[in-house]
Design brief:
CATH architecture: 3-Layer(aba) Sandwich
Structural class: alpha/beta
Helix content: 25-40%
Number of strands: 6
Largest sheet: 6 strands, parallel
Strand content: 15-25%
CATH topology: Rossmann fold
Distance between the termini: 18 Å
Number of helices: 6
Order of helices and strands: EHEHEHHEHEEH
Shape: globular
Mean pLDDT: 87
């Protein structure tokens, strides 16, 4: 199972468009995939008590079990927010880290795909997130994929139409599928 995460809770984000495209691409390749849209996070569960290992809100625990613990691999689409990645993604990681810390990311292959309106495709944010994932025992694919000037990659109906981007996403999906870190 591969979980694809849209790493923002911004309503109507382009990040979700690309994450959904990747999710559908994996399914078309016969790979079991699920999409976690962070706009669906129960933000009321993120309270000061969440940092106690004795507490995890039931809805957040359910999301963690299904989308993180239940996945063998992850693909995280990371929009650029202030030169890094969105705080809600960090909050989510922090919120689940007190429960089953060693099992969340440890020994899981993680593909990072940066999404940005600018030219760098959120390279810096992917580095920040990659360091966090590696610290928690995840294995970040070495070829982080920056998607730049994303508005130009979509048609008027917000469908991905850029042939080069479609090709690199396909290659990235194949790399994630083929990655086996169990050996």
């Amino acid at each position: 199972m591969i979980t694809v995460i849209s790493g923002t809770n911004r309503s109507g984000s382009r990040t979700l468009l690309f994450a959904n495209y990747f999710h559908e691409l994996l399914i078309s390749k016969g790979v079991e995939s699920q999409l976690l849209d962070l706009t669906k996070l129960p933000l009321g569960d993120f309270i000061p008590e969440m940092y106690s290992s004795k507490f995890i809100a039931p809805e957040l625990k359910s999301i963690q079990e299904r989308y993180v613990l239940g996945a063998q691999k992850l693909a995280i689409f990371v929009p650029e927010y202030n030169g890094s990645y969105p705080g809600v993604l960090k909050l989510f990681i922090d919120g689940i880290s007190v429960n089953e810390y060693p099992k969340n990311f440890k020994n899981k292959a993680v593909a990072l795909i940066g999404v940005a309106s600018g030219r760098a495709g959120n390279l810096r944010g992917m580095d920040h997130l990659g360091d966090t994932i590696a610290h928690m025992g995840g294995w970040v694919l070495p070829n982080k994929l920056p998607l730049s000037s994303v508005e130009q990659l979509l048609d008027d109906q917000d469908r991905l139409v850029d042939a080069d981007t479609i090709s690199v996403l396909d290659k990235h999906a194949n790399q994630l599928i083929a990655t086996d870190i169990s050996a």
